[in-house]
Amino acid sequence: MGDEPYTTQRATSTKTSSTGSRHSTSPHHAAYAMERARMLFGCYRRGDANDPETYVAAISAVLASYEPEIVREVTDPRTGIMTSEKYISFMPNAGELKVYCESIAARRERFNRMASLPPPAPRLPPPPPQQGERAKVFVPDDHPRYAGLVEWSQNAEPKWWHFGRSSDGRSGIWIPHGVWDRDPAFCRSIGSGVANLIGSLAEAAG
Fold first, then answer.
1. CB distance 195 to 187 below 8 Å
2. Which of 90, 100, 125, 195 could be a cystine partner for 184, CB 3.0 to 4.6 Å?
3. pTM (2 decimals)?
């Protein structure tokens, strides 16, 4: 019986390695690998292989170890190994093709692993601005410019001013340096729209 021809159909076996290679005896997959090996061979000058039939057979054997998606990418004239700078002019041997396929398989596995990760937690919104958090200059309530600054504060954002006391216990208002310096550009940048008002009131106060 050992000399009888093997006539029953072989079962298809598939094994996936850690890098995503596919070991299969599927006739369909083997035929596809052969077809893509011929396409790869056809992308180069025919004289580059000493034995074209042996070359195509070796290349198809390597390709048959990988998933169809990898085989397609590696042999596609638009994205495959022939577009790599190293292999633009010289066709890869079987070993070089295997190394290239493994890199593609590892990249695909990495992308799939990243895609399976849970989405990052949403970033918490910044805390709301605190009253007077940008106010650094204290103006006491008996200062000539105090009344004008109080009027300015009615239209300014809370973070730019607050009423309070100084270290020596005097009451007044805290404001930004730019407002105290009557810097029109600064006043416009904080959206107060009252730079001229501050200047005119300060001049009137002497």
1. yes
2. 195
3. 0.49
